[in-house]
Amino acid sequence: MHFLNMFFFDIYPYIAGSVFLIGSWLRYDYGQYTWRAASSQMLDRKGMNLASNLFHIGILGIFAGHFLGMLTPHWMYEAFLPVDVKQKMAMIAGGACGVLTLVGGILLLKRRLFSPRVRATTTGADILILSLLVIQCALGLLTIPFLRPAYGRE
Length: 154
Description:
single chain; Fumarate Reductase Cytochrome B subunit; 5 helices; about 75% helix; metal ion binding; heme binding; Heme-iron_electron_transfer; electron transfer activity; iron
């Protein structure tokens, strides 16, 4: 059990991050013109600004929180920030960013599905990716209430 815990929480995040960065770099170098998303902004702007801004601000906050949370060693903050306070801050800030992302993602998905002009240019992959992001965000938000009892156990 110790090996699985160490693998999934100490080793695997670095493997996943490396595959993401190296894969993105290679895709950009060797398939530069395949790296695009079909824009639907000109087809229907109604609600686009709100949904897109909520989604992207939330995603950037989630990315920054996970990045800082994974790469900041305990010794850097334990002298002035107790672990339970750090966890509470992460849950509140992460929850807020997660809600922004979820609401924005749902609005973008609704627009993709129910706006006739946007729907005409939408591919199955667009809907699949956006649906997976919304589901992943919802699952991440569902973990917050279950983490709450962990305060003070370390």
